[in-house]
Design a protein that fits this description.
The complex is a heterotrimer. In chain A, 62% of the residues lie in helices and 4% in strands. Chain A contains 9 helices and 2 strands; from the N terminus they run αβααααααααβ. The two termini of chain A are 33 Å apart. Chain C is globular, with a radius of gyration of 23 Å. Chain C is built from 16 helices and 13 strands. The chains are: A mainly alpha, B alpha/beta, C alpha+beta. Chains in contact: A-B, B-C. Chains B and C meet through helix 4, helix 5, strand 2, helix 6 and strand 5 of B and helix 1, helix 6, helix 7 and helix 8 of C. The complex binds protoporphyrin IX containing FE (HEM) (2 copies), NI-FE oxidized active center, iron/sulfur cluster (2 copies), FE3-S4 cluster (F3S) and magnesium ion (MG).
Chain lengths: 243, 362, 555
């Protein structure tokens, strides 16, 4: 029988907490557009990070001595730019879904506009980050802290798109990158734009590490199928918790 | 005074044919192409020699030196025939009082018509005492000459973006010209700018009497619209991933791309790879050294030159964004791992509860 | 007693102000003030030592190249790097090219108008001019038709206001050349302007551009390969070879004969402008590596009191030899303003205490310049082509001795004539001719190496900062066209901790030192006659004979 830290049998704590037998029900949280956004985004981003890093640090590949015989670096850049387009369009699709999607996908969830959301942020920090509390709030969609961090991430997504487009403008005939040509004079030079574009790479690396870890963490701590939710869309909710 | 450029050239024994050749060269340099020659011819036939003053402030005179290296139209013609260069401390015969007189006369007699070419930045700290000429500060001289000028050109990186004296910590408060005068300034950056580019700007402005098309940084588009990288002859090697890995290695001798040696061609807008230097003899990359970005704002503070990305501000010379990024990434991983361990210790009860729920159901 | 102010001094590099005290038509005291500063020594601190060449190269675009070379030498000396012989040769080629270009430009475009009356050239008979020119040079361009076309040019030019030649001291009685010689000189002024852009193509070949060609710590950035189109190959070397021939012809048939001819009319200037009697040269043009100064073409050393029988050794690393003072300069030293500091512990703390601009004079101000005052064993030194020749002459370098002897013979003046305004200008021409000869030799040696496929141009052992000691210090010495140039560097943890430049024009143009000893400019002006206080052409003659570079001097 598993023991709690205080040494009492689990079943007893359970009873003393007043929990009855636990029932779960399925909730369709992530609609298909959200799921497909998620995996397209994840794939494009990984591709962008890897190719971006390679653009910054070309490896020593020399399978032919003449330029007309090999083109690997060109391909790396091609993949970067193609993924960039996918990534940008996908992002706009998600923005659209933020207005027409279900309540879990709505743009409002990402901004702590309501007092209850701000309180939830504090609670989540106490329970999951600092772990000074045993039980935190359990939300069906994103918890408020996660949502807010996604919001900040979206901003960095945007900055990365803007700096990327600014760098892309001089080599592109498309109108979209040219919308952001003003970024260069703003930061002073291509140097600086490239520098920031490169710095953000490391933000994404850190984000992905923490993000994937937290997916596992929540799955582990809550046991409600967090990870599978982003594949199938369904999460499990305690009937008692449901409003 | 009062004669057209053609008249003045004719007087000096130029034949009509030589004159037309000169115009064709001027048109090419001004980026007007062959078809622009007619425009130049009519401009030269009608326009008076424009009065020009060339100011020297915080600089190294390499812009003047570069100007003297121009191929077409030959410098001499420009100096003697096409414009009336009344003030330039590097070449003018007069000194002291007589030099000041040349300057003042030009301003007085050509109000609203003369052109100011500025070489050098202007120090603004401590009342401007870090550059004084004839007992006056560069700052006050600039205001005086710019006031009634028809146009102001900022030669070189010094005048257009501050250049080396404005590099951190900019001890004298060196400031580019466009930040000091309330007139549009044509920026012709480069350290120095390419002679033929300077001549192109002069031809446009002084000979044709028109301001060339400018970009958002007020640089003539025709010379600063492309990156060195876009037209670099080593570009195929870049795309192929063929890089010089260390100085004077086999790859360097083969002329592979200098990207990994820190070449700033991909972030530098200049005409070097097309116009080239010294009548097309070479340009930095052609002679084996990467571009250092000498026409870009703040290029001195984006070093070290032999690194692809600048050092991260506030850290040592050797720390690039990636060293810092790797440290942050590894720290994040470690943090996450620590969190996982702590979770298993502190949240044992919660985990147990979840398992208990499961037990109950079974 | 009148205080004559000349500011701006034009036809130099940078911002120089001379205030001369004239009594009864003769200069009795003088003050030389550099009035522009950029603080590059402060900007260098904290940067990668491998970048320093590029930053210091921007000290000056007239003597471009020389600071870059001095800087890479300083860093290499600190890190213990020796460069491959082929790289050394290319550096020598760059430097000799600079000598020749710089000196020709100086003579025709910066100095000549002190001696040549452009307006007077209008009176010349072109036919006679051609005869005179033919008597001392076989240059085929020197024809009557050519001189007459130049005269027409000047005529039209004079009619339209004279542009850059306006308000010169034309007609001043100090101009002594016959109209024909004036005309020849003006024609060659124009030719030299066209010519100078050719010779610098040598810089473009090896360094990518001029002004400001590229350098590299550990060697030179260009690679050599006769099998590749993108390297320094036979085509590029042919170009250099033809540029060298063209330059040789110009120096031998135009520049040198013109200097001698013009000098012949101004022998009285062998009396004035001698100035100091100490001469310093660091020596230049390594033939067996930079660490063997005995092998240099120009000798290293000091000559004191014009005593040619003795050459004193110079050691820039000895912290007691070279020191910089700021007793009369707009700086402060933490240890007090009357102390001298060896450049390794040098300081650059700007502190302007002069009159509030706009001002009329610097009179009554104890500090009056942005130049620091360098001293060798507390003594002021003249540096430059003249000092180079004197030190090498006294060291017994035969090629130098011969050429100096020949030149003095042709002018028919005694050796003492060297110590003067005239001597300084003649010395520069001799310097250019020697450099021209050596340039040819270096190029031939380079060709030999290429033939033997000894083409390595870079030593990368200490390229990576992790191979460097955590602390080290170095000195780079060169003979720049204007004289002895030194860069002092201290490196700590891969970054520049201190960087100080002691530049030729700093030696020559500085204010007096803590002991009130004058430097070259001030000393050389004393005793010079000034005929017309409104048109002090005599001041320009002596000052220009030093070829001042103020951007260098202050940096
Ligand atoms: C969001 C994830 C992205 C990451 C992590 C990323 C990362 C990088 C990195 C590290 C570099 C190399 C920078 C250097 O060291 O010089 C780079 C280059 C570049 N990126 Fe991105 N990037 C991303 C998105 C984008 C987007 C959306 C665009 C938009 C078009 C873009 C366009 C570019 C361009 C044009 C370059 C310069 C490539 C070249 O000139 O060869 N990137 N990227
Ligand atoms: C490059 C990799 C990834 C990126 C950039 C990324 C990004 C994101 C973003 C932006 C969201 C918010 C989605 C929305 O509301 O539209 C999200 C949600 C989610 N992601 Fe990822 N993701 C990545 C990889 C993964 C992986 C590998 C997993 C699973 C192991 C995962 C699991 C989840 C889950 C479960 C959610 C929903 C979280 C919640 O309930 O708040 N993600 N992800
Ligand atoms: N003085 C000086 Fe220079 C020289 N030659 C440098 O070291 O001129 Ni600009
Ligand atoms: S821009 Fe560069 S080359 Fe021109 S004066 Fe400034 S430092 Fe010299
Ligand atoms: S050498 Fe420089 S400019 Fe040329 S292709 Fe390579 S990175 Fe681009
Ligand atoms: S360093 Fe300057 S000269 Fe051209 S190749 Fe780069 S812009
Ligand atoms: Mg100094």
């Amino acid at each position: 029988m598993p023991m709690s830290s205080s040494g009492e049998p689990i079943r007893d704590i359970f009873r003393s907490n007043g929990h009855g037998p636990t029932e779960y029900r399925r909730v369709y949280v992530w609609e298909l557009p959200v799921r497909s956004y998620h995996w397209i985004n994840a794939t494009a981003l990984v591709a962008l990070c890897i190719t971006g890093y390679l653009i910054g640090h070309p490896v020593h590949i020399l399978y032919a001595p003449e330029a007309y015989q090999q083109y690997w670096f060109g391909w790396v850049r091609f993949i970067h730019f193609t993924s960039a387009w996918v990534y940008i369009m996908n992002f706009f699709a998600r923005l659209y879904w933020g207005f027409v999607g279900n309540k879990y996908a709505k743009w409002r969830t990402f901004l702590p506009l309501k007092k209850s959301q701000r309180q939830e942020i504090v609670e989540v920090i106490k329970a999951d980050v600092l772990q000074v509390k045993m039980h935190g709030p359990i939300s069906t969609g994103h918890n408020s802290l996660a949502a807010f961090i996604y919001f900040l991430t979206f901003i960095v997504f945007l900055l990365q798109m803007i700096t990327g487009c600014a760098l892309y403008a001089p080599m592109s005939t498309s109108w979209l990158p040219h919308l952001f040509a003003w970024v260069v004079p703003l930061l002073g030079s291509d140097f600086r734009v490239r520098f920031w574009h490169h710095i953000f790479l490391w933000f994404f690396v850190c984000f992905v590490i923490v993000h994937i870890y937290l997916a596992f963490y929540h799955d582990y701590i809550e046991g409600r199928g967090t990870i599978s939710s982003i594949v199938g869309g369904w999460k499990f909710e305690r009937v008692k918790d449901a409003k | 005074m009062g004669q057209s450029i053609w008249q003045s050239m004719e007087k000096k024994g130029y034949s009509r044919r030589e004159f037309l050749q000169f115009c064709a060269a001027a048109a090419t340099v001004a980026g007007l192409g062959k078809s622009g020659a007619a425009q130049v011819v009519s401009a030269f036939e009608k326009r008076e020699k424009p009065a020009v003053v060339w100011m020297h402030f915080q600089e190294c005179t390499c812009c003047s030196e570069s100007f003297l290296r121009a191929s077409h139209p030959i410098v001499l013609d420009v100096l003697l025939d096409v414009l009336s260069l009344n003030y330039t401390e590097t070449l003018m015969a007069a000194s002291g009082l007589q030099a000041e007189k040349s300057l003042n006369d030009t301003i007085q007699n050509n109000k609203g018509k003369y052109i100011v070419l500025v070489e050098g930045a202007v120090p603004t700290h401590d009342g401007g005492v870090y550059c004084m000429i004839g007992g006056k500060t560069a700052e006050s001289i600039l205001q005086t000459v710019a006031k009634d000028a028809a146009a102001v050109v900022a030669w070189g990186s010094c005048a257009s973006n501050g250049c080396v004296q404005a590099a951190k910590p900019n001890p004298t408060g060196a400031t580019p010209i466009h930040k000091l005068v309330d007139k549009p300034v044509i920026n012709v950056p480069g350290c120095p700018p390419i002679a033929d580019v300077m001549m192109g700007v002069v031809t446009h402005l002084l000979v044709l009497g028109q301001v060339p098309a400018l970009d958002s940084l007020n640089r003539p588009k025709e010379f600063y619209g492309r990156r060195v990288h876009d037209t670099c002859y080593r570009r195929p090697n870049y795309d192929a991933g063929l890089f010089v890995e260390s100085w004077d290695d086999e790859n360097a001798r083969r002329g592979y791309c200098l990207y990994k040696m820190g070449c700033k061609g991909p972030v530098t807008y200049n005409a070097c790879s097309v116009v080239k230097w010294n009548e097309g003899t070479s340009y930095p990359i052609q002679s084996g050294h990467g571009c250092i970005g000498c026409s870009e704002e703040g290029f001195w503070d984006n070093g070290p030159f032999y690194q692809h990305l600048p050092s991260f501000p506030g850290f040592g010379v050797e720390s690039t964004a990636d060293t810092i990024g790797t440290i942050v990434g590894v720290t994040t991983l470690a943090g996450v791992a620590a969190h996982a361990v702590v979770t298993n210790v502190r949240k044992q009860r919660v985990i147990a509860e979840v398992h208990a729920e499961e037990q109950k159901e079974s | 007693m009148t205080r004559v102010v000349v500011d701006p001094i034009t036809r130099i590099e940078g911002h120089l102000r001379i205030e001369a005290v004239v009594e009864n038509g003769v200069i009795t005291d003088a003050y030389s003030a550099g009035t522009m500063v950029r603080g590059l020594e402060k900007i260098l601190v904290g940067r990668d030592p491998r970048d320093a060449w590029a930053i210091t190269e921007r000290v000056c675009g007239v003597c471009t190249t020389v600071h870059a070379l001095t800087s890479v030498r300083a860093v290499e000396s600190a890190l213990g790097i020796s460069v491959p012989p082929t790289a050394e040769l290319i550096r020598n080629i760059m430097m000799t090219t600079q000598y020749v270009q710089d000196h020709v430009i100086h003579f025709y475009h910066l100095h000549a108008l002190d001696w040549v009356d452009i307006v007077n050239a209008l009176k010349a008979d072109p036919k006679k001019a051609a005869e005179i020119a033919a008597s001392y040079s076989s240059w085929d361009k020197n024809t009557a038709a050519y001189f007459s076309s130049v005269q027409d040019k000047i005529k039209a030019f004079a009619a339209s206001g004279l542009g850059i030649f306006a308000n010169g001291y034309w007609g001043h009685p100090a101009y002594k050349l016959p109209p024909e010689v004036n005309l020849i000189a003006v024609a060659h002024y124009l030719d030299a302007l066209e010519w100078q852009k050719e010779i610098v193509k040598i810089h473009a070949v090896f360094g990518g551009k001029n002004p400001h060609p590229n350098y590299l710590v550990g060697g030179v950035p260009c690679s050599i390969s006769t099998n590749e189109v993108a390297a320094i190959n036979s085509d590029r070397l042919n170009l250099v070879s033809s540029l060298i021939s063209q330059a040789t012809e110009f120096v031998n048939q135009v520049y040198i004969p013109d200097v001698l001819t013009v000098a012949g009319f101004y022998k009285d200037w062998a009396k004035w402008g001698g100035g100091l009697s100490n001469y310093l040269s660091y020596g230049e043009f390594p033939t067996k590596g930079y660490n063997q100064p005995e092998s240099f073409r120009y000798a290293r050393g000091v000559v004191l009191n014009r005593d040619l029988s003795q050459v004193h050794p110079v050691n820039a690393r000895d912290t007691q030899e070279i020191k910089e003072y700021i007793a009369h300069s707009w700086y402060t030293y933490e240890g007090g303003d009357s102390t001298g500091l060896h450049p390794w512990s040098g300081e650059t703390n700007l502190n302007y205490t002069g009159p509030k601009p706009p001002f009329e004079t610097l009179e009554g101000h104890d500090k009056y310049s942005f130049l620091k005052t360098p001293r060798w064993k507390e003594q002021p030194m003249e540096v430059g082509p003249l000092a180079r020749l004197i030190v090498s002459y006294a060291s017994g370098h035969t090629d130098v001795k011969e050429l100096v002897g020949q030149t003095l013979g042709k002018l028919n003046v005694p050796t003492d004539a060297l110590f003067s305004t005239l001597g300084r200008t003649a010395a520069r021409a001799i310097d250019a001719k020697l450099a021209m000869t050596w340039l040819v030799e270096y190029f031939n040696e380079l060709m030999t190496r290429v033939r033997m496929n000894e083409v390595s141009t870079f030593n990368g052992e200490r390229w990576e900062p992790k191979t460097w000691p955590s602390e080290c210090e170095g000195v780079g010495l060169t003979e720049a066209p204007r004289g002895a140039l030194a860069h002092f560097i201290k490196i700590r943890n891969g970054a520049i901790e201190n960087y100080q430049l002691v530049v030729p024009t700093t030696w020559n143009g500085s204010p007096r030192d803590a002991r009130q000893q004058r430097s070259s400019f001030e000393q050389a002006l004393i005793g010079t006659p000034v005929a017309n206080l409104e048109q002090p052409v005599e001041i320009l003659r002596t000052i220009h004979s030093f070829d001042p570079c103020l951007a260098c001097a202050v940096h």
